[in-house]
Model the fold of this input.
Amino acid sequence: MLRHLGYHLHRLAIPAVLAIRFDSTGTHAERGRVPPGLLADCTDVAAAFAIERGRVEAVRGLHGFTLRFSPAIPAGSHQRFRNVFGVHLAGRR
Done:
């Protein structure tokens, strides 16, 4: 429960630049201009880890983008998402 509360408070304090949402109908770009290739690769990662719901958000940090994951996204998939975002958002600030 605290993880969910912390996640939602962090979302309120620091808004996302890009957000991708996973639900029963598929993968959706929820915020920002998400490149089609990034959306397709995130769909592949979600399928590989059987992710049925959750959010992955790119937040602007001091050294580029950092990712924020909803509690529904398994920790084992975080590095795969970081790799995908790194490929598609390289050089973008």
